[in-house]
Design brief:
The chain is 43% helix and 11% strand. The protein has 309 residues and is α/β, with parallel strands linked by helices. The protein has one domain: Alpha-Beta Barrel (TIM Barrel), CATH 3.20.20.370. Helix 3 (50-62) runs parallel beside helix 11 and helix 5 (138-154) runs parallel beside helix 7 (174-186). It starts with a helix and ends with a helix.
Length: 309
């Protein structure tokens, strides 16, 4: 075979391989029939407070919450790093963090503040929010994100995936998303991104490659859901779950004095909110609906393995 023919054959094989990846659903890449309902129950914000850590650990050990991500920049991260080191099979990602949204309970960058000046306010904390007057430098964001990952690795955490606190790296422009994606590729980790977001943020789909993991759907409860409707919201979502891979993004925590103080400026994602999430996802009601609807729980560890095939 001539050199030209060999090159053509290799190109054709690569094209066919790429087409096969695109043709398969994510469920099929994981080894399931395409109509299987697969669910990740993912707890955000570990490391934020002890009450969040304690509730999530208890829920993980009950076996219904099966995945979580850690905020390296937060004060209670060392507790979760120790837990992760002694529970190497736990499905822990990193909740990459560039904001400090609470009024009285704040945190700042892992990197030296002089290297990431656009990320911090005049007190040296991450900005409370990103308004139109704050220009976040993507290069500085990359410095900080790599510092968070390196600290996690140095403290014994072996993450299974990356996601973004408050979706800042997902929903605030192509440059920041591509920073996150580049870092994920460097560390060979999947990123939480779902097809549900493609219509509103078209640069997501444009930036992703054929080997990137893309979830089919995501569900998270919103502030307009009243406490008495909490269980009804989740039960309806589970009854209407579509085939493919869905991630429920939840926020468990114990409604104790510590968490009430840390979140006292507003009720959204506060102590009572997090207690309701914990209560539902550790309930018999949740276990029963999973069985009734034939929903299978999976983890990011399985997704990462599928992405590396």
């Amino acid at each position: 075979m001539t050199s030209a023919l060999k090159s053509h054959a290799l190109l054709l094989a690569l094209l066919l391989s790429t087409m096969t990846v695109y043709a398969q659903t994510l469920a099929e890449r994981l080894g399931y029939p395409s109509d299987t309902k697969l669910l990740i129950v993912h707890a955000d914000d570990l490391g934020e407070t002890h009450a969040v850590n304690a509730a999530t650990i208890k829920a993980l050990e009950k076996g219904t919450i099966n995945s979580a991500s850690l905020m390296v920049a937060c004060p209670w991260f060392p507790e979760m790093a120790d837990y992760a080191k002694s529970h190497v099979d736990a499905d822990f990602g990193l909740h990459l963090t560039l904001t400090s949204e609470r009024v009285y309970y704040r945190w700042g960058p892992v990197a030296s503040k002089d290297k990431v000046p656009s990320l911090v306010d005049h007190n040296g904390y991450f900005h409370h929010d990103w308004d139109h007057n704050e220009l976040i430098n993507p290069k500085e964001a990359e410095i900080e994100l790599r510092a968070q990952i390196e600290r996690a690795l140095a403290m014994g955490v072996r993450p299974t995936h990356l996601d973004s606190h408050q979706y800042r790296l997902i929903m605030y422009g192509k440059e920041l998303f591509e920073v996150m994606l580049r870092i994920a590729h460097d560390y060979k980790l999947p990123v939480f991104v779902t097809r549900d977001w493609f219509a509103q943020y078209p640069y997501l789909e444009q930036s992703l490659g054929p080997n990137d993991i893309v979830l089919d759907h995501t569900v998270t409860i919103e502030p307009e859901v009243t406490p008495e409707k909490w269980s009804e919201f989740y039960m309806t979502a589970l009854k209407n779950l579509k085939p493919g891979v869905t991630e429920f993004v939840i926020h468990p925590g114990f409604d104790d004095e510590e968490l009430r103080a840390a979140t006292k400026e507003r009720a959204t994602w506060g102590a009572a909110w997090r207690q309701r999430d914990y209560d539902f996802f550790t309930s018999d009601q949740f276990r029963e609906i999973l069985a009734q609807q034939k929903i299978k729980l999976i983890t990011w560890r399985e997704l990462a393995a599928a992405g590396n095939k």
